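Comment on both lines for my students:
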Amino acid sequence: MRIPAPIHGKLQSFPLLTRVPIQTGDIDLSGCLSSVSLLRHFESARLAYFESLVGPRLSPATHSSFIRGKGVGRILGRASVAVVVGLELNHLHNHDSLWLAAKTESLARNKLIQNYVAVSEMSGQVVAEGSALIATYDHVAKQRADVPAEVVDAIKYIEGDTLKIH
C-alpha cells in the first residue's frame, strides 16, 4: 500500500498506518464525519496495532492470552476522539479515504495509553485525533493484571525511544 508523501510526513512517527474508505454510514446528518465512526475506525487501528505489530513478536501462549483474550489480555478502559476539521459530505462523493495511524505513547505496570490520528487522503488534513487507555486484565482470575513482560518488550521494540515508561 503506497502512502502519499504529504500524509506519510504527518504520520511518520506512528508505527501503524492503515487506510479505510469513508462509507455513507460514516457521515452524520450535518454532512460531517461522525465521532462514533471515528471511534470505530480508531478501534480498528488499535486492533491492527496489536494483531500485526505486537502479535508476531509474542510466543504462542502469550499471543493466545494477550491478543485473543484467553488469559491476561487487554480491555478498553477509556476512549476519546476530537474532530479537528469537519470532513464535508462532498468528500464522500469524491471517494475520500482516511489514513489511520496508531502508536503507544506510554506504558505503565497494568495499562498503556495509545494515540490515534485520522488524515483525509484527498485534502491531506488531519481530521481527527484520539486516545485510548487500555488496561490489562486477567480473564481467568477476573482481576487487573500487569502487562506481560513479552508484550512490554514487543511494544518497546515497536515504539523505540519515543515510548514513555512509568
Notes: The first helix runs from residue 5 to 11.
